[in-house]
Design a protein that fits this description.
7 strands, about 60% helix
Length: about 350
């Protein structure tokens, strides 16, 4: 049951593999969005130039903007491109889900195996059961449905933002081209809001599929595993909630880690003790790093960077506990997740 150096090496390699999959996914989505906007920007540039020519007394009214034929055409084209991009994001993500699930299920077994005695010290090691094809297919199907549902309103939401920025009253002033360039940038920002949404959905669902496959592997081997450990990446980028959750032991049947959108936390299987597994040999010390000890060893500047000044002061003074840093939150249309407890709530706990 001890977390060994081999366990830590396997977990590090697994994180790197997942990070690479997500980086490749990000690159594919960004490239698709950039290509689409390059085509659309020509239409919007022409439409905005036409709109500036319609200005009277240095102003374009909201009614003029809303009725401008070229601008309406450009917005219609944006809807079409965003629908195509949503479909592209869905297909691109789905292509990697099964590969990620398969790798996660095997990795979970490898990580558990690393906690058992070396093969040369025992006669026979326990045999692990691999995750069934049916279980993996169910994970892929559920992930695919979640992605499709999440991306469904993508074009509506992004174009709504674009319209708010474009179809309104505009003071053209003495330099209509400057105004047109600013409006073009605002249109691009609204269009790229769809990219942000797509990346968040794709990354989050991919990570959840990875964890679900890990759970399936744990559940298939309950004769060996006793639970799972919440494993955060302990660095300056990690949020207080995940740092506080790091190292917590959970039952095998519990989903998780249920960290926030795009959270990088891992589900680490925990095997039974060597004695419980029938091995009458001494077990090594556990190498799992204690997150509080890790945090206490940081510089004051890094602590403030992670926690924020007031949260850190409350923690240092003893007004709040370590576990108060993390709060379970319910979100419509998505699973519950652990988030950083807002400072205002921590103030209430302190009083």
């Amino acid at each position: 049951m001890a977390i060994t150096s081999q366990t830590m090496a396997l977990l590090s390699a697994r994180r790197q593999e997942v990070d690479q999959v997500l980086a490749d996914l990000d690159l594919a989505l960004i490239s698709a969005w950039v290509g689409a906007w390059n085509d659309l920007s020509v239409e919007f540039d022409a439409a905005l130039a036409d709109l500036m020519l319609a200005a009277k007394d240095g102003r374009v009214t909201g009614s003029q903007a809303a009725k401008n034929v070229r601008l309406r055409k450009a917005l219609s084209l944006a809807v079409d491109r965003l629908d195509e991009l949503a479909q592209f994001a869905e297909v691109t993500t789905q292509a990697d889900v099964m590969r990620v699930a398969l790798a996660a299920a095997q990795s979970q077994i490898d990580v558990a195996l690393s906690q058992l005695p070396p093969a040369d010290r025992v006669a026979v090691l326990p045999t692990f059961t691999r995750v069934s094809d049916a279980a993996l297919d169910a994970i892929v199907a559920r992930t695919t449905q979640n992605i499709a549902t999440g991306l469904l309103p993508l074009s509506d939401d992004a174009v709504a933002v674009m319209k708010r920025n474009l179809v309104r009253g505009i003071a053209v002033g003495d330099n209509p081209r400057t105004v047109a360039r600013r409006m073009l940038r605002q249109a691009e920002q609204g269009f790229n809001g769809g990219l942000t949404r797509a990346m968040t959905i794709a990354r989050t669902e991919m990570l959840d599929a990875h964890r679900a496959a890990g759970k399936a592997a744990d559940m298939a081997n309950t004769d060996i595993t006793t639970g799972w450990i919440w494993g955060a990446s302990l660095d300056a980028r990690t949020c207080p909630s995940c740092i506080a959750q790091h190292g917590q032991l959970h039952p095998v049947e519990e989903d998780g880690p249920i960290d926030h959108h795009q959270g990088r936390c891992a589900r680490i299987p925990k095997t039974k003790t060597w004695k419980e597994l029938g091995f009458d040999i001494e077990e090594p010390a556990d190498l799992m790093q204690d997150s509080r000890e890790w945090f206490d060893g940081l510089t004051d500047d890094t602590k403030r960077q992670i926690m924020g000044a007031e949260r850190l002061e409350l923690l240092n003074s003893g007004a709040i506990k370590w576990e108060d840093l993390s709060t379970r939150r319910t979100t419509d249309g998505w699973r519950d997740a652990m988030h950083v407890t807002p400072v205002r709530d921590l103030r209430g706990l302190a009083t």
